[in-house]
Design goal:
alpha+beta, Alpha-Beta Plaits, globular, NIPSNAP, Dimeric_a/b-barrel, NIPSNAP family protein
């Protein structure tokens, strides 16, 4: 599978969780939600803890096109796995609507450079290995809101910067 094709449409999802429940959500997410979403046509690049925010879960979901996004989200959110576990997942969350719908400026999530550490910044970074910008397309799956207060540029790098946040990959994160 060519994972770079899944960088065409990217969701950067930041969930604010109830105090102390991040590991509970991550455990549920990694056990129940990764494979069904990928089987539906999404690609989960990264699942992260944010050390500066102990009640936040940040994750990246990619699609090959907006049409593929609609199909994958429709299949997953109407499917048996989401129906079975949605209440447990939602019980951990305060807010799941901090979502940026992005398109690539510089691809690189599928094949980051060697090294360790992942940092995300809401601005261009000279050391970035992947850069995305707000996709101006209308949200074609309105059941899941996306932010419209942009435009934003999102950079991923191995190096920290004054404006970046460190991301710590979970056990199932592909981006490390």
């Amino acid at each position: 599978m060519d994972f770079s094709s899944f960088e065409t449409v990217l969701e950067l999802r930041r969930y604010q969780l109830r105090p102390g429940r991040r590991d509970e959500l991550i455990s549920l997410f990694e056990r129940e939600f990764v494979e069904p979403q990928e089987e539906a046509g999404a690609h989960l690049f990264g699942l992260f803890r944010v050390p500066s925010s102990p009640d936040e879960f940040l994750w990246l979901r990619g699609f090959s096109s907006l049409a593929a996004r609609f199909d994958a989200l429709s299949a997953f959110y109407s499917g048996p796995v989401w129906r079975r576990f949605r209440e447990a997942a939602n019980a951990t969350m305060v807010d799941s609507d901090n979502v940026l719908l992005l398109r690539p400026v510089v691809r690189g999530l599928a094949s980051p450079p060697p090294g360790s550490g992942v940092h995300v910044s809401l601005e261009a970074s000279p050391s970035a290995f992947a850069v995305f910008e707000t996709d101006p397309s209308p949200n074609n799956f309105p059941q899941l809101p996306v932010r419209t207060d942009g435009p934003f540029t999102v950079s991923f790098s191995r190096e920290p910067s004054a404006s970046s946040e460190e991301l710590v990959p979970t056990a199932r994160s592909l981006l490390r």
